[in-house]
């Protein structure tokens, strides 16, 4: 099943590229899966899927399960990866990632 209009093979390759613990790099992942080249509407759709509780933000717990939005069998991010990802995306320092912050992170 395509996620936010992404190619399944690209998503699988992106997931395979970060299968080992502490190997997740958001820039590489967004580029490999094709999200970095998608429209802002597609990026917003991806955000809405990752924002599991529909709070308008991606919190740390949702970020930890980030990869599982792309494939249910994907691993959870490690605490270190989650904190690094959150720090990279949380430009206003509120401890969560809003839709504009997520879009900036995807396009980084």
UniProtKB/TrEMBL annotation:
<feature type="binding site">
    <location>
        <position position="57"/>
    </location>
    <ligand>
        <name>Ca(2+)</name>
    </ligand>
</feature>
<keyword id="KW-0106">Calcium</keyword>
<feature type="binding site">
    <location>
        <position position="55"/>
    </location>
    <ligand>
        <name>Ca(2+)</name>
    </ligand>
</feature>
<keyword id="KW-0514">Muscle protein</keyword>
<protein>
    <recommendedName>
        <fullName>Parvalbumin</fullName>
    </recommendedName>
</protein>
<feature type="binding site">
    <location>
        <position position="101"/>
    </location>
    <ligand>
        <name>Ca(2+)</name>
    </ligand>
</feature>
<feature type="binding site">
    <location>
        <position position="96"/>
    </location>
    <ligand>
        <name>Ca(2+)</name>
    </ligand>
</feature>
<dbReference type="GO" id="GO:0005509">
    <property type="term" value="F:calcium ion binding"/>
</dbReference>
<feature type="binding site">
    <location>
        <position position="62"/>
    </location>
    <ligand>
        <name>Ca(2+)</name>
    </ligand>
</feature>
<feature type="binding site">
    <location>
        <position position="90"/>
    </location>
    <ligand>
        <name>Ca(2+)</name>
    </ligand>
</feature>
<dbReference type="InterPro" id="IPR018247">
    <property type="entry name" value="EF_Hand_1_Ca_BS"/>
</dbReference>
<keyword id="KW-0479">Metal-binding</keyword>
<dbReference type="InterPro" id="IPR002048">
    <property type="entry name" value="EF_hand_dom"/>
</dbReference>
<dbReference type="InterPro" id="IPR011992">
    <property type="entry name" value="EF-hand-dom_pair"/>
</dbReference>
<feature type="binding site">
    <location>
        <position position="92"/>
    </location>
    <ligand>
        <name>Ca(2+)</name>
    </ligand>
</feature>
<feature type="binding site">
    <location>
        <position position="94"/>
    </location>
    <ligand>
        <name>Ca(2+)</name>
    </ligand>
</feature>
<dbReference type="InterPro" id="IPR008080">
    <property type="entry name" value="Parvalbumin"/>
</dbReference>
<dbReference type="Pfam" id="PF13499">
    <property type="entry name" value="EF-hand_7"/>
</dbReference>
<keyword id="KW-0677">Repeat</keyword>
<comment type="similarity">
    <text>Belongs to the parvalbumin family.</text>
</comment>
<feature type="domain" description="EF-hand">
    <location>
        <begin position="77"/>
        <end position="108"/>
    </location>
</feature>
<dbReference type="GO" id="GO:0005737">
    <property type="term" value="C:cytoplasm"/>
</dbReference>
<comment type="function">
    <text>In muscle, parvalbumin is thought to be involved in relaxation after contraction. It binds two calcium ions.</text>
</comment>
<feature type="binding site">
    <location>
        <position position="51"/>
    </location>
    <ligand>
        <name>Ca(2+)</name>
    </ligand>
</feature>
<feature type="domain" description="EF-hand">
    <location>
        <begin position="38"/>
        <end position="73"/>
    </location>
</feature>
<feature type="binding site">
    <location>
        <position position="53"/>
    </location>
    <ligand>
        <name>Ca(2+)</name>
    </ligand>
</feature>
